[in-house]
Amino acid sequence: MSPPSLLPALPRRLAAAAVLALFAVLSAWLLFSQPGRAEGTPTVAVSAAPSSSSVGVGDTFQWVVTIDIQGPDPMETGGALLVQADLYLPDALTHDPPDFSGWDRSCGLSSPADYDCEVWALLDPDVPGAVYEIPITALVPRNPDVCGSHELFVKYAWIYWEGETEEPTAGGGGTATATVTVQCKTVANEGRVLVGKVIPGFPGDTATFAAVLTPCSEQEGPAGPAIGVPFSQPAPGSVRLPAGCWEISEHITLPGYSLLGWAWAKHDPQGNVYCPTREQSDEQPVRFTLEADQVVAICFFNNRKDTTPIDPPDRGAITVAKVVVGDPSDDTEFTAEVWGAASEPELLGFTQQRPGQSSSLSAGSYKVVEQARPGYRILGWAYGKPSRLGDTCPGEPAFEGNTAPVTLAAVDVTAEAQPGTGEHVAVCFYNERLDDRDDPVDIDPEDPLDPEEPEIPDVIVVEKTESVLGIERPGVGWQFTVSGCGIEPRTAATGAGGSVKFAVPHVPGCSYTVTETLQSGWVAVTPSQPASPRKAGDVVTLTFVNIREWNPPCMVGCYELPIEPPPAPPASPQPPAQQANPPAAPPAPSPAPQTPAPAPAEPAPPGASSATGAPPAPAASLGVPLPPNTGTGAGRESAFAGLLSAAAIAVLSLSAGLTLIAVARRR
Predict the structure, then answer these.
(1) Number of helices (H) and strands (E), helices first, in the chain?
(2) How far is Cα 550 from Cα 157, in angstroms, rounded to an integer?
(3) Which residue of 98, 206, 379, 500 lies most exposed, with the fewest beta carbons within 10 A?
(4) What is the pLDDT of residues 23-38, one digit of tens each?
(5) How far is CA 481 from CA 459, 489, 518, 524, in A?
(6) Could you tell me if 543 and 465 are in contact, meaning their C-beta atoms sit under 8 angstroms apart?
(7) Which residues pair with 245 in a beta bridge?
(8) Which of 196, 216, 193 is nearest to 293 (CA)?
(9) Quick check: 410 and 364 in contact, CB under 8 A?
(10) 221 vs 247: CA distance, rounded Å
(11) How far is Cα 99 from Cα 222, in angstroms, rounded to an integer?
């Protein structure tokens, strides 16, 4: 071939070689790249904000907690992400439960100001983000004590599983806060009037009444307009008025009610009204003078003409009060036992500032015994004057000793009755603080039911703690059972503070057993503990801790082991028919039966998703909690990677061969 004929073809050969080189580079990139891997980890941001940063008394607003989840970029496999948030709200405000429910989210109430919320997010490679909002409606009560700033606090933690990995691949947490300010308008020369309602015999009646306030007629200046105030038994009325002389009256417009009268009442800083048990007068209107910054409370009593009360009357109550002679500021806590005829003693803690009360008692005879306390001398006891407005104790004890008999008689309506004739009885115990040089007191008083037995019951206190992602809180509503030492097992639930008390007989050398009733979704650290009081009257405190299990529910792509057994192998084909006179042959040893190798199991169809979220696993590992199966494409992508490898090798070989041919032709 002559040189002139070679030159025109040279550009085409160089272009072909360049194209082949480009294919080689692309094939190498496909061969050595690893599809199915996510770049980085998700980001989770939690924020909290009120709908209005400044609200007024009595206004309604919303807390809004926002959970913003963003997946890694680029994201090729997806994954499952769990966010758990603890929401702590101000106790001074009232709240409605969060409106936050769905297949992938939930909120539960831990205490009146504490919510536990969970969010499951399935991060899709195409849409690797999600935003969730938790709205909580809050109400500002009608009292000046809530004025100022209040904080909402959120503590959260998150866990991320990439693809179908069994162990979490990332996690984190943080906090968020928001502040709302309650604005209380302060108007000079103004006071406030609270109006309460009493319908004797019908404590569950929620009918709304109206009172009318008008300025006194002899006041100077033009008379102002009448002011209406709605109110009911569960919701007292409240209104702010200029200081001066006012008249108030109630006009009955509801059928089936009549006016009994009215009485002055007491109130607390939160705006609650405490009415006496009976009316003071039936004359209307009621005139009073309101001073600046003064709060006046009044209650109106009505008769309901129904023959049967809506709710049964309250049962009896015994209040135990304390008087430390010569030291009204002493806040030491004492303990009293309330003994019934057919019940275990109830233990009451009480101080001078906080009386103890045993309620829901049936009519009958009781004994109230104060336990002696080291450092104090028992001076005696007396009956007090019980009232919803506060108990009143006489100036000195009326009886000696530490045991007070109480008789509760059944009456139709709870009354402030004298001891032994009504449902509510107050008992006052008097003590004197001892000097250091005085002898200690006997801490084992007599058992009121058996004077020959000096022992008093032991007390077992159970304190329950729940641990969720390292966040500890009191466990409410957990059942505990005390057994042993010859008693019948006793079961009780923890209260709002996460504790419960048991009073048990003292048996020398015996140990009781306290066992908790395990709830689903929790792991018990110590499901059972012994309690070994050393002497009569001992208080033994046991602490139980439970940890929430982490077993994320399955969302998509979840499979179960097949429930039906695998089909039997196909039957062996029948041998051909034998001849009539087959030739004799020596018997051959029978070969050992061989089990045909099972065919590879096909994955269950998507419709067989497991409700437990457990992907296919050997029987020995079925109890291990696994994250949701989102799929990494490992099986398909590994096969695809094999094909790509073969294709890349072929392209590289072809490219090398064509290049050699082109070079040879040039020569």
Answers:
(1) 3, 37
(2) 13
(3) 206
(4) 665 655 554 444 445 4
(5) 14, 6, 11, 15
(6) yes
(7) 289
(8) 193
(9) no
(10) 16
(11) 50
Beginning with the edge strand found earlier in the chain, give each strand of the sheet holding 487-493 in spatial order: 487-493, 479-484, 512-516, 528-531
Residue whose pair of structure tokens reads 């926002």 in the numeric block? 66
HEC sequence for 32-95: HCCCCCCCCCCEEEEEEEECCCEEECCCEEEEEEEEEEECCCCCCCCEEEEEEEEEECCCCCEE
Looking up tokens 């004492």 gives: 334
Return the CA Rg of the chain. 40
Decide: 502 and 460 in contact? Cβ < 8 Å. Answer: yes
Q: Are 511 and 484 in contact (CB under 8 A)?
A: yes
Q: Residues of 438-470 as b/e, b for ≥16 C-beta within 10 angstroms?
A: eeebeeebbbbeeeeeebbbbbbbbbbebbbbe
Beta bridge partners, 196, equal 299
> Any idea what DSSP says for residue 24?
H
Strand partners, 449: none
Q: pLDDT for 392-428, tens place per residue? A: 888 889 898 899 988 876 654 343 444 444 467 889 9
Q: Is the pTM of this model over 0.85?
A: no
**Which one, of 199, 223, 402, 437, lies nearest residue 320 by Cα?**
402
Quote the CA–CA distance of 545 and 475 in Å, as a whole number.
9
- Going from the C-alpha of 512 to that of each of 460, 484, 487, 524, 538, the distances in angstroms are 9, 5, 9, 19, 13
In the block, tokens 């096909």 appear at 602
Q: Which two tokens stand for residue 266?
A: 């007491």
